Amino acid sequence: MKGKLHLCTKGVVAFFLILTLLLSFIGFLSMRRTALAESIVSPQDEAVIKGLLLQLAEDEGYQTDSFEYEPFDVYYPDETWAGCDIEFNIEDTVGYGIFFKIDGMMTMVEISFESHSPFFGKEGMFIYPKLDTYYINAQLLESLLR
Questions:
Q1: What is the DSSP string of 120-139?
Q2: What is the per-residue pLDDT for 87?
Q3: What angle do CA 145, 122, 54 make, to 5 degrees?
Q4: What is the maximum span of the chain, computed from C-alpha positions, in angstroms?
Q5: pLDDT the model gives residue 2
Q6: For residue 105, how many other CB atoms are within 10 A of its CB?
Q7: Distance in angstroms (rounded) separating the CA atoms of residues 84 and 71
Q8: What is the pLDDT of residue 24?
Q9: Mean pLDDT, each 10-residue run in order, the chain (146 residues)
Q10: How far is CA 55 from its chain centroid?
Q11: What pLDDT is attached to residue 96?
């Protein structure tokens, strides 16, 4: 009797362990989808980015106190969120800036007042492994968002 009870207890424990692992995996997938669907740029980060872009625009000779922009998430090669690519328009001039969140602070990695970002008009997960190197993982994004 004691052996059967012990065997039954092991079966119940194994069942709950498998159930816990399965639920954890499902939770991970939904968190992954959320991370891909929502930017991690806080309102404070956004204010820093806007201020920096306005200052740089002034340094470049533009006389403006506002501009249009659109942010896009950018990821490291291991597919963790790195920061954002900001496409902007200042005085009818198109440009972009790439910003990474490093040690809790938004840091400008790259900027141009002369062209669109290399990611412009493309769909997928924007990967930025190193300076002046860009690629897009479209298949991974599709499979994660299903």
A1: TT--SEEEEEETTEEEEEHH
A2: 95
A3: 105
A4: 87
A5: 52
A6: 11
A7: 6
A8: 42
A9: 52 48 39 45 88 92 88 91 93 92 89 93 86 68 45
A10: 25
A11: 95
Q: Which two tokens stand for residue 34?
A: 């959320």
What percent helix, strand, coil does the chain show, rounded to 5?
A: 40, 30, 25
Give me 26's structure tokens: 């499902």
Residues 6+ apart with CB under 8 A from 137: 79, 124, 125, 127
As given in the structure block, the two tokens for residue 1 are 């009797």
- Round to whole Å and give the CA distance between 73 and 31: 16
Check residue 137 and give its pLDDT: 74
Tell me how far apart the alpha carbons of residues 32 and 75 are, in angstroms, rounded to a whole number: 13
To which residue do tokens 């141009």 refer?
A: 112
Rounded Cα distance between 146 and 142, Å, is 6
| Residue 71, both tokens | 């942010």
Contact 126, 142 (CB under 8 A): no
User: What does each C-alpha distance from 72 to 1, 34, 40, 61, 86 come to in angstroms?
Assistant: 63, 15, 10, 26, 6
What CA–CA distance (Å, rounded) separates 86 from 128? 14
